[in-house]
Inverse folding.
């Protein structure tokens, strides 16, 4: 229990909650002591409004983002209060603010959170409409609250400048460990490979997101503050983790075929599975040591496991003899090479956290990292380009604007106690996707009800103001700690601290909970109905775009690999960029499919077909990356005409599938049937094997290496051809079963 509490208090969520609790509680307590609690509450409100936009980043972006958010929320508060008495002026400004700040989400996560803060500021402006000089005093205090939170955030930044990225690295290591464990599970004879594949796809989505986040922070921090041992350590471990993941994705095995091949030799597969599990265990232990801030202790000797696998392979070759074991030995050698590469990369991650890291340890691998991150600039043309109904953010902005207006008029016409709580519920719950909105609606309603019941149970015993103040601060801290990870629990504690604040300011609020629940229900119903009926962004309408981008990225990556294989040159920046874009494209496609699964059954048009295409795209990327990895780590022979013809055939298939998605002229020409390609490859393999056998000048080691290349490249080309052909067939079915 103590360990769990310690881990919780070391988490990023708790640290963020501590920041806002200090920034909110300090002014309230200070001015309460001075006899002016109203001023303290307003300053605290400014801090609360700025807090959501405080996302992890380098100091420069953090400061700029918080200053801009502070100016926006204080400006919005000023405008709403100034124009409210004049309906002819108020409503156009009200609608414009709602729509324009919602459109900020077209840029990035920070802009999205600034938009959220602005919408919350709009909602809370109606909690009390000020007049006269009070308008400027209130807006000024909101501004002061935002600046005070900025100072608190900067203070925390210098206290723990690297803790956030350490925890992100630890989370990345843990997720990578889980992925490698699933690879180990695939070696079980009766494993549910379809279910394991689904879990792997889900983990890939999570890992893609965390890779982008870590890359952003590490690269920008190095650019602005130079290279320190800590930054080099994080960079080295992060790059190795990305390589571990890419190597795992790019190396797939035909488990059924291997089990059949080595059915009479189970020791070798069991030895490999044991190594696979221990790779995952090493990473899991490393992640735990980082998150717990404890020295890393070796529990599994993966080098010893690797030697055991080598011995098992040698025993297999000895048992069958050099002739009969050649095909199986090539398969096992491929598995051994994969294991060796993973062990090497995991050892690099281990060393990064146990020894000092020098600049030379990076070996220039970080030179292209800056090209892979999203550059933060906010051109107006990006906003203008999204002023169309095909834009998900545009439709969401219209939807939330109309919904807030409806909620505002309902609150004004019907006898609700406070309209602002309805608007706040809409803003907090409503998301561009139906699935997330529905989930947040349920969690908010349950959290509000539970929080209200607990809060009034405590108030029943009439605790003193001092006790209530302490309980309020604890609830605030826990509410903001749980809110990002468990919205239901977070809402429970936030509801409690809101009720406690009201009870301190206005004793006798027994009817408050029923009003809050009623307001929450109205806001939630409006949000759900709006997401369903007002310009809905159903994922089956968006997923073809993600599919097309993934196909294009895979095609471009294949072309870059072909150029690399033909030229035998150093890996270029364009190759690395194309590979990165291919992984991002597949990750976005997976995320889109997962959102589709959360939507109503009636809106899951062609669900199984899109799942199949998602799996096919991931498999195609895996196969292409496998060839790329092999080419980079092995000396390869000259590219044959058949190789280039096969790559051309595969890219043609992908272009054809893209044309089908765009409903362009889909008349195919000059396509070779997959079975004909397989026959050509088989003939090529036999011819190449014969040539190598007849070459008396070639050594046994070179013969094995070249045969391994022949087998690997031809098998992957056959697999890629079949995958691309299946992608075309599945894409055609989308035209047969059109979306409606």
């Amino acid at each position: 229990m103590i360990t769990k509490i310690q881990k919780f208090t070391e988490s990023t969520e708790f640290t963020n909650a501590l920041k806002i609790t200090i920034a909110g509680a300090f002014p309230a307590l200070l001015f309460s002591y001075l006899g002016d609690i109203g001023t303290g509450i307003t300053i605290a409100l400014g801090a609360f409004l700025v807090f959501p936009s405080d996302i992890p980043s380098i100091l420069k972006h953090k400061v700029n983002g918080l200053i801009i958010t502070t100016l926006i929320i204080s400006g919005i508060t000023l405008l709403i209060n100034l124009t409210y008495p004049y309906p002819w002026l108020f409503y156009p400004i009200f609608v414009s603010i709602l729509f324009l700040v919602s459109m900020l989400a077209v840029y990035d996560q920070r802009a999205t959170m600034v938009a959220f803060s602005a919408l919350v500021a709009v909602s809370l402006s109606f909690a009390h409409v000020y007049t006269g000089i009070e308008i400027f005093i209130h807006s000024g205090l909101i501004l002061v609250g935002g600046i005070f939170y900025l100072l608190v955030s900067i203070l925390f930044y210098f206290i723990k400048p690297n803790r956030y990225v350490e925890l992100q690295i630890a989370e990345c290591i843990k997720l990578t460990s889980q992925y490698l464990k699933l690879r180990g599970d695939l070696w079980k004879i009766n494993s549910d490979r379809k279910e394991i594949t689904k879990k792997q796809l889900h983990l890939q989505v999570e890992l893609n997101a965390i890779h982008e986040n870590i890359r952003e922070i590490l690269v920008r921090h190095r650019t602005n503050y130079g290279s320190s041992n800590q930054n080099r350590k994080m960079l080295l471990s992060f790059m190795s983790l990305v390589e571990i993941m890419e190597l795992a994705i790019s190396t797939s095995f035909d488990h059924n075929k291997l089990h059949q091949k080595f059915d009479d030799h189970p020791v070798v597969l069991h030895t490999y599975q044991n190594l696979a599990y221990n790779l995952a265990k090493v990473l899991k232990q490393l992640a735990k040591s980082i998150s717990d801030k404890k020295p890393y202790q070796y529990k599994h000797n993966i080098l010893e496991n690797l030697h055991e696998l080598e011995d098992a392979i040698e025993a297999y070759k000895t048992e069958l003899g050099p002739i009969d074991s050649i095909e199986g030995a090539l398969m096992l050698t491929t598995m051994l090479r994969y294991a060796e590469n993973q062990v090497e990369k995991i050892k690099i991650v281990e060393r990064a956290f146990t020894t000092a890291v020098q600049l030379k340890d990076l070996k220039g691998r970080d030179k292209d990292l800056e090209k892979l991150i999203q550059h933060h600039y906010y051109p107006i043309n990006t906003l203008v380009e999204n002023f169309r109904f095909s834009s998900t953010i545009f439709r969401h902005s219209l939807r939330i604007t109309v919904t807030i207006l409806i909620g505002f008029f309902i609150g004004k016409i019907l006898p609700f106690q406070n309209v602002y709580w309805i608007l706040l519920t809409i803003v907090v719950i409503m998301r561009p996707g139906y699935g997330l909105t529905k989930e947040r609606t349920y969690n908010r309603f349950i959290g509000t009800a539970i929080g209200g019941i607990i809060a009034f149970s405590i108030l029943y015993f009439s605790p003193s103001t001092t006790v209530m103040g302490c309980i309020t601060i604890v609830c605030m801290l826990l509410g903001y700690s749980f809110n990002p990870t468990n919205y239901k629990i977070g809402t429970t504690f936030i509801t409690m601290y809101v009720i406690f604040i009201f009870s301190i300011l206005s004793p006798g609020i027994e009817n408050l909970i029923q009003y809050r629940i009623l307001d929450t229900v109205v806001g939630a119903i409006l949000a759900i109905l709006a997401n369903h009926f007002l310009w809905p962004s159903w994922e089956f309408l968006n997923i073809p775009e993600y599919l097309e981008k993934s196909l294009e990225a895979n095609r471009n990556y294949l072309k870059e690999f072909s150029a690399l294989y033909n030229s035998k040159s150093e890996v270029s920046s364009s190759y690395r960029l194309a590979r990165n874009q291919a992984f991002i494209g597949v990750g976005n496609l997976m995320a889109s499919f997962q959102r589709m699964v959360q939507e109503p059954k009636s809106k899951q048009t062609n669900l199984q077909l899109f799942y199949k295409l998602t799996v096919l795209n991931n498999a195609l990327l895996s196969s292409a990356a496998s060839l790329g990895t092999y080419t980079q780590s092995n000396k390869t022979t000259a590219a044959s005409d058949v190789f280039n013809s096969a790559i051309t055939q595969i890219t043609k298939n992908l272009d054809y599938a893209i044309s089908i998605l765009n409903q362009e002229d889909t008349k195919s020409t000059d396509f070779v049937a997959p079975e004909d390609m397989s026959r050509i490859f088989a003939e090529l393999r036999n011819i190449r094997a014969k040539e190598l056998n007849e070459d008396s000048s070639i050594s046994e080691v070179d013969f094995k290496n070249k045969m391994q290349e022949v087998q690997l490249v031809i098998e992957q080309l056959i697999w890629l051809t079949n995958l691309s052909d299946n992608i075309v067939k599945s894409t055609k079915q989308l035209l047969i079963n059109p979306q409606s």
Summary: Residues 388-537 form one domain. Residues 699-703 have pLDDT under 50 and may be disordered. The chain has 27 helices and no strands.
